[in-house]
Every structure is written in C-alpha cells, then in structure tokens.
Q: What sequence folds into this?
C-alpha cells in the first residue's frame, strides 16, 4: 500500500520536477542514486516518527486522522506544486558530485513535503516491525519509481506532459485512500 500511496503522492510533485531538471544536467544513474539515498533517509525518519505517534495514540482515532490527512493531501495535490526560480537555479547550478548534489537537494526538498507526511501517516496507522519495514521500503521504492518515471518521461515528452491530468489522478488516489481510512476508523 505504501508504494502505491507514495507513487501517487509524488506525481506532479516538485521533487519530480527537480528530478527532470537534474536529468538535464547529470546522467540518469547518479540522479537516481542521489534520489534513492535521500528518499531512504527521509522516509526512515518518517516511519520512526509515525511509529512513535502510532504507539502513543489509540488505533481508531489514528485511522480517522489519517483519512482526514489523506483528504487534505488530495486538496494539496489539486493545488499543484511547482519549482520556483530559486529552486530551479539551484538544481541547474549544483556542483561537485552529482550524487551528493542530487541527494542533498532531495533530502532538503522532502522535509515536510506531502510524501514525508503521508509516510508518517501510514506508519502511525500500521505498527509492528514488519509493517513499518514494509512502509519504509514501499514508500522509498514508490518515490524513486515516480521520480525515475519523471526522468524518462520528461526526457521523452518534454513539456507535452498533461500536468493537469496527472494532478487530478493523484488527487483522486489520495481521496480514495482517505475515504478508505475514514471508513476503517469509523467502522472499526
């Protein structure tokens, strides 16, 4: 589940835009390695925070709050996400090792981002070492897969991507997960 949730969350996110920008400057493999390293660290921290919250709070309210959070993520996604000129310039001018430049940029960009918050929410709702490990691995793979797709599609299609369709699809995915979590929390 975390793979699908984070993959959908990443569609149209500024991290995807950063991945496309970095791919125009560096080879794809160092960009993917940097993204993977940064994502693994941010999502590991997210799972730890979510696990602590999940252990401290009762299950039904967590499911209801998680459902509401995912509905909020749907609205956030509809609002859209763009790189501002400063972020775009940083991605273009990144010097030194491509892996270090990409990894650092992604790590900082993901702090407080919706994919980090979604991972925290999933971890708070699904306890246990196996569940938390699955959320960490799934969220990391989901984000890296979405960003890899952005690199490939961005190189192939350039600016012809239907951004509005991607944004609406991602928002619908969040809304569906939100409703399912609300039903689980209310019925549970």
A:
């Amino acid at each position: 589940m975390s793979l699908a949730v984070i993959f959908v969350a990443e569609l149209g996110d500024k991290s995807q835009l950063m991945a496309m920008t970095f791919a125009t400057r560096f080879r794809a493999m160092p960009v993917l390695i940097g993204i993977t390293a940064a994502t693994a660290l941010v999502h590991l921290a997210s799972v730890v925070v979510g696990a602590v919250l999940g252990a401290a709070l009762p299950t039904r309210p967590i499911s209801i709050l998680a459902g509401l959070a995912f509905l909020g993520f749907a609205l956030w996604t509809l609002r859209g996400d763009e790189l501002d000129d400063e972020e775009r310039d940083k991605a273009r001018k990144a010097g030194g090792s491509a892996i270090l430049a990409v990894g650092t940029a992604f790590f900082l960009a993901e702090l407080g981002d919706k994919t980090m918050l979604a991972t925290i929410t999933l971890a708070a709702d699904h306890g246990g070492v196996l569940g938390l490990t699955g959320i960490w691995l799934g969220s990391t793979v989901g984000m890296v897969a979405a960003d890899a797709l952005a690199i490939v599609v961005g190189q192939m299609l350039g600016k012809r991507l239907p951004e509005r369709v991607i944004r609406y699809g991602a928002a619908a995915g969040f809304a569906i997960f939100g409703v399912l979590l609300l039903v689980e929390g209310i019925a549970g």
The CA atoms of residues 47 and 123 lie 5 Å apart. The mean pLDDT is 78. DSSP finds nine helices and no strands in the chain.
